[in-house]
C-alpha cells in the first residue's frame, strides 16, 4: 500500500519500525499499570476510602508489585480442562489486545532519530475495520477460556461473552458508518485529518454516544460486565485460571480499555489534534505535543470507564440484550439513514428553501398520519384482545376439548386433586413406624 | 508489476499461509471434538484473510475476518457450547455410501475448479493488482463501484435472501404470548398478595441437628417446619423424624 495518500506509511527503515513497536508495547504495559492504580484510587475516592498508597509515591508502584506477585504465584491447572485450548486462550486474548494498537495514530509526522515518520506504526485504507477484526479475534480468547475450563461457571461466562460481543459489535460497527461517510475514508490517519475544523463528536453526536455505550459492552466493563459477574458466575470465564495466565487476561482487559478509548479519540475527538483553546497556539499540532493531547483524551475516556464502574449497578442479562438489540441497533440504523440522506442532499442535489419546506411539511404530515393509523390500530387490537380474554375466562376448562387432552388457557382454573391429604397420612405412618 | 512476478516476501507469505490453511482444513475434518473443528476452521479463515490482504485486497481480508471468524464461527461456537461441553458426535453414517460419494464429489469439484477456472482465466490479460485497484481510486472504492453498479441486482437479491432466512429463523423460534408478559413490578406485587411467605424458604437443617435435605428446619421455638423440605421429598414422605428434648420423636405438623 504505497499509494499517494499513504506515502508516509510502509516506507520506514526496519529499525524505526522496531523502535515504534517497542514503544507501543512499553506504553501499553505502563498504561495498564497506571490504569489499574488510577482505577483503584478513583473508585476509592468515590467510596470514601483512600486506596493503595503504600508502595512508591502515592502508591503508584502498587500494580507493579501486584503484577510481580501474580506472576510468581503457584499455577493451578484443574483436572478436566482441555489443555491445548486452555493454554491458547489467554495468549489469543493478550496478543489480540496488543496488535490492535498498530493502526492508532498518536501524532503527526515527526522527527524520530533523524527520520521523518508519522507517530503511528502503520496505516492502510481499511484500518478501522482491522481494529474490529482484531477485537473479534480477541473475544475468542474469552470464549475458549470458558469452554476449555471444563466447568460450568466459566462456560456460562464464555457463552455470555460471545452473545454480548455479537450484539454489541453490530452497534459499534454501525456507529462507525457515519464517521466513514463524513471522513470519506476508513483509514485512521485520514479520519483524524478529516476532523480538522470540527470534531466528529460534535457533528455526529448520536454516533459518538452509541459508540461510547457499545465500547463499554465490548470491553466487558461495568455496568456491562456480565461475562464475569462475580455474584452469579464467580469469576466468569477466568474462574479456573491462576498465576500468569490470569495475569494475561487481566492485561488484555486493561489494554482493550485503552484501545477502545484510543479508537474513540481517533474517530470522534479529533485524535491527536489539540482541543479548542490550545489549538489557537500555532505549534500545538506539531512535533511531539500532540502525543500529550492524545494521552489526555484517552485518559478522559478511561476516567469515564472508572466512573461508570463506581456509579452504576450491573444490568440484568435480558435487559442488557434488549438494550443492545432493540435500542442501540435500531437507533444507529435510523441515524445512519439521516446522515446518508443529508450527505446525498448536500453533495448531489441543490434545493431551494421552498422545496425543503415542502419536503419537510410532507414528511411531518406522513409521520402524523402514520402515528394516528398505528394508534387507532393498537386501540382496536387491545379491544379485541380484551374481548377474547373475557371469552376465555367465561368458558370453563375442558381438559378433553375436541377429544384430545389440552392444557388450560391463561385465566382458566384447573381443579386437580391435591396430594396434601394422602401425604399427611403417609407422614403419620412414617412417625409411627 | 505485470502478471506473474513474485517477490520473496510474497512467496514467504504464500507458503506460510497456504500450508497453515490446508493444515486447518485437514484438522477441521479429522478432529473428534466439534469445538476443535471450529478452531481449525477459524485458523483456515484467518490465513485466507492474510492471503487476500497480501493480494492487495485489504477490504475483503478484513471483512473475511469480521464476518466469518468474528460472527459466523462465533455463532457456531455459541451453538456448540449451548449443546454441551462433552457431547460428542456420533460417527455412524446415516446415508449409505456417504463417504465414498463425498470423496467422489469432492474430486469432481476439484477438477471443475482447476479446469474451469484455469481455462476461463488463462486467456485474460493481467493488468496487475496495483493498476486494478487504482481504477476507482482505491480498493474500497473499486469494490463499492462494482457492488453498486454492475452487480447491484445480485447484491440486492442476496441481501433479500439473507433477510428472508433470518425472518424464517425468527418465525420458527417465535412463541406466541397469550397475555402480556408480567413486568417485574407486577410479579413483585403478585408475590406479596399471594398466600405464600414472600421471603426465602428456610433451608433444610437450619437450627436442626443435621443439614441433610430431608431433615426439616426447626423454627426458633423448636418446632420443625414443613416448608424447608423440598416438595418431592414431602410427597414421598421421605422426611427424617426430629427428636426434641423430652426424647419424643416428632414430625412436622405435629405441634402446629
Automatic annotation (TrEMBL), chain A:
It is a multi-pass membrane protein. Residues 411-433 are annotated as: Disordered. It is found in: Membrane. The chain crosses the membrane at residues 14-38, 83-107, 127-153, 165-185, 197-216, 246-271, 291-311, 323-344, 356-374. One of its GO terms (biological process) is aerobic respiration. Keywords: Membrane, Transmembrane, Transmembrane helix. It holds the Pfam family NADHdh. One of its GO terms (cellular component) is membrane. The keyword Cell division does not apply. Residues 412-433 have a biased composition (Polar residues). One of its GO terms (molecular function) is NADH dehydrogenase activity. InterPro entries: NADH_UbQ_OxRdtase_su1/FPO (IPR001694), NADH_UbQ_OxRdtase_su1_CS (IPR018086). NCBIfam families: PRK06076.1-2 (NF004741), PRK06076.1-4 (NF004743). This is Unannotated protein. It comes from freshwater metagenome.
UniProtKB/TrEMBL annotation, chain B:
It holds the Pfam family Oxidored_q3. The keyword Hydrolase does not apply. One of its GO terms (molecular function) is NADH dehydrogenase (ubiquinone) activity. The chain crosses the membrane at residues 12-30, 37-54, 66-88, 100-118, 151-173. Keywords: Membrane, Transmembrane, Transmembrane helix. The keyword Membrane applies. InterPro entries: NADH_UbQ/plastoQ_OxRdtase_su6 (IPR001457), Nuo/plastoQ_OxRdtase_6_NuoJ (IPR042106). Residues 215-234 are annotated as: Disordered. This is Unannotated protein.
